[in-house]
Amino acid sequence: MTERFFLYCWFSHSFCVYGISVCLLNVSVECALFVQLFYMGLVIFVPATAMEAMTDFPLWSSVIITGTVATVYTTLVRAQPLVFQFLQCVVDYVTQNNLLL
User: Fold this and answer.
1) Residue 15 · residue 27 · CB < 8 Å
2) Is residue 62 within 8 Å of residue 51, measured between CB atoms?
3) How far, in Å, CA of 27 to CA of 50, rounded?
4) Which residues, 6 or more positions from 44, have their beta carbon under 8 angstroms from its beta carbon?
5) What is the pLDDT of residue 38?
6) Cα distance between residue 35 and residue 33, in whole Å
7) Gap between the Cα atoms of 41 and 34, Å rounded
8) pTM, full prediction
């Protein structure tokens, strides 16, 4: 019983400065951040290990290459719909203004 009480006091003293809702929010955000960082590390490390085995590059250069390729690919894939959405907004704006004239 005293161990549970001690852990509760330590947890509430360490994390619950502003109340229990903020405390739970902080803990959940920290857990989600840890899981996301672990996932990103795994997603970059596994292909880098395979590339190291196939090409005899050092592991550090394989990780840098894999991270760079993943970042560039993600940026291009995420930017494409934004560009098309912007162009669609421009076309809609121009056609609406031409119809009003």
Assistant:
1) yes
2) yes
3) 35
4) 63, 66, 67, 70
5) 92
6) 5
7) 11
8) 0.53
